Amino acid sequence: MAPEPSLGEFEQLILLALVRLGDRGYGVSIHGEIVRRAGRDVTLASVYKTLERLELKGFAVSTLGEPTAERGGRRKKYFRIQPAGRRALAHALASLRRMADGLAPDLDPAFAADPLRGDEG
Length: 121
Fold this sequence. Notes:
The protein contains four helices and two strands.
């Protein structure tokens, strides 16, 4: 079996934003999710560059929306996570959980309990 492709931290954040946004994921909305939820000050250019890389890896796909008057007739480029992207993200998150498993809860309270495993914390 081939090893799972690795994802960088920012690629993980982008894919998580795509999962959250569903069909509404475009550059500005993805950027907003990362700023709001991860508290990261990132540029829109870094979001687009990472989306381009994720498309090349087959982890995301883009489509063009309809032209809108508020955008001066320009189309939004929407992004969606692909099945390979979901698998890579699940693998990355599982690796992180395994690495954090058994660490002192005061190190990172987010890993103190895992409801998927039935842990109480």
